[in-house]
């Protein structure tokens, strides 16, 4: 009698983001610059000031101030982190942190076209295009400041929680194959964003349908029995929508390809960019079909406008696309004066009270091995909270990722050797980080692509009190998912953009 070996489940170990600098460990270049500037000022005081007490104060004080600005905790961050945030927030308040759309007064031109209305602050200039995508059309957004082009398709959630372990592993492997194909292929898509939108559904929808379409002549005992069955069902109901955003960065090769497509089809160069994006999405959709992820529909201009509108006003149904145009995608009023949340209101809101939105970024991913469903508490097991979870993945070819991994491995080995020579105690977190680098190297050597990812979560509520309660709920759910969140106070109007289907929030 023989037994089959037990296959170990796939686990993930992502860890904390470690910034890279020219010198130093876990420090950004700006932080290193402040420390160097503080030391230089201290040395100049020691050399130029003749009075001994002032000389000692300058010699010691400036380096201490520099170290305190970089290392000393201050409201869960450091003074270095808060400086630019506070400066930008004060500048926003001076320039006016309220926005009011001019869509109602803009009118229509003599040629029948609507007058262009710009988006709210924080989004930047946009150009809306459309391209044929099978029997439908797809909207392509050109982000002029970021020099990117994005398009959105709606997909069905993979539903890994409804599958057994073998199917879950196979699904994850197929999605990894998709990322590897996009990163190492000769296409122009360099970034993918996954959006998980959770909205409340009408808990009385079934009862209303029964009252409208039910047979009033049915037996009384049957109606009583069905009413009892309905009363036993939970009244909490949610709808989950998933979207995939493809992003192309504008460069010389993409410009040449768009020019070629424009000449071949008789369109402008911008329309050629839209055609190239549609071609890239066709390839991605074929890979999604191989990964057992069904594409529901591409988002044209009306559907994309309706999605953007519903993110500012969750009362707006996502599928309500009548009279939805690009200038109706934005809210009627937006207020960013409050440092802890963003307020937005649309013209068709049910009440005069605006919606409150608060955004957090994933400061720390799982530091311990987790399974495939580690995000289930955040995505599924948090009822009655309106939220959007956005994960942006910046893809890079395998060779580039291997070079980055080798550089990080060399730095870690040099740091470990230096610590051993100085007889310092080895930090166990560094040991875990080294093991993660080794595992990443093995995955890259087997052909995996390099992925840099960042996550953002936006919570929406009707009032500041309800928003504070929902934020506590989301923080608890994130803890169950082994995530550590940090709310983007004083910059919510910019952080909110990272949960819109624009594939932003990560630096290249």
UniProtKB/TrEMBL annotation:
<feature type="transmembrane region" description="Helical">
    <location>
        <begin position="32"/>
        <end position="50"/>
    </location>
</feature>
<protein>
    <recommendedName>
        <fullName>PrgI family protein</fullName>
    </recommendedName>
</protein>
<dbReference type="InterPro" id="IPR049978">
    <property type="entry name" value="SCO6880-like"/>
</dbReference>
<keyword id="KW-0472">Membrane</keyword>
<keyword id="KW-1133">Transmembrane helix</keyword>
<keyword id="KW-0812">Transmembrane</keyword>
